[in-house]
Amino acid sequence: MSIDTNPSAPPKERTPVPQPRMRFGKWMRELGWRHLVGIAVVIFATFPLVYVLSASLNPGGTLTGSNVLFRELSVQNYVDLFSDPRRPYGAWFANTMIVGLATSIGTVFLGALAAYAFSRMRFTGRRPGLLALIIVQMFPQLLAVVAIYLLMRGIGEVFPAIGLDSLIGLIMVYLGGALGVNTYLMYGFFNTVPASIDEAAKLDGAGHARIFFTIILRLVAPILAVIGLLSFIGTTSDFVLSSVILTSPDKLTLAVGLFRYVSEETSTNYPVFAAGAVLAAIPVMVLFLWLQKYIVSGLTAGAVK
Hints:
mainly alpha
């Protein structure tokens, strides 16, 4: 009996043993029902989107003509959307982007500063401050609409640029109402970052500002992306506060402006409204796709000292 001791010899290939096929009944009990549920959820979630897109391309003036999806295709609704002088959709779109981006950036920056202070610093009133943030968020913002209106009207009498019917005033209202829950969410995420990183940076001579901007913000990128995305979606789709503060037709946001297409008794044009809704959803979708890579990569990223 001879033994092959040549280490350079290629390994012998093994013939794969055919596995018996799973019966259909067993496959359905173990895996098939999950596929069916997934397909049903996808259809349920995408059908309204497909219907709105079909309605926006329907040249008719009612939604009943869009029951048959994509039966008629036309871009006339999009042309009418930008050619109506009484409803300046372009100005509404620009106002919404300004308010949404400014609010999301300000919310992320101010919330991160507050969360870093609560997480890394020890001062009198720290725990009561966190508790106060949570208690304030228990009351819906709708309860403060009257108070906000009176406050903004009083501010507008002294500083008209930040009072009623101003985008800056609306941004300030959004920033004031978004700090509570966002700060608490960031505070919990900041606590997951080891304090030893801060201590090592302090030994090298770094202060709180340098630690915050050069180290901590990189490590908490996932929560910053989530807060920024949620803030942008919330402000661009808000109707109550923006309808109370903004009154001029050229200063409205998309949520308030598009409502005018379906709120008038004598002239309701749902296909044009659907066209505006489709265009309004594009920035949110683009921002989500752009931030998705930061969320996924940030979850697996770490720091080594």
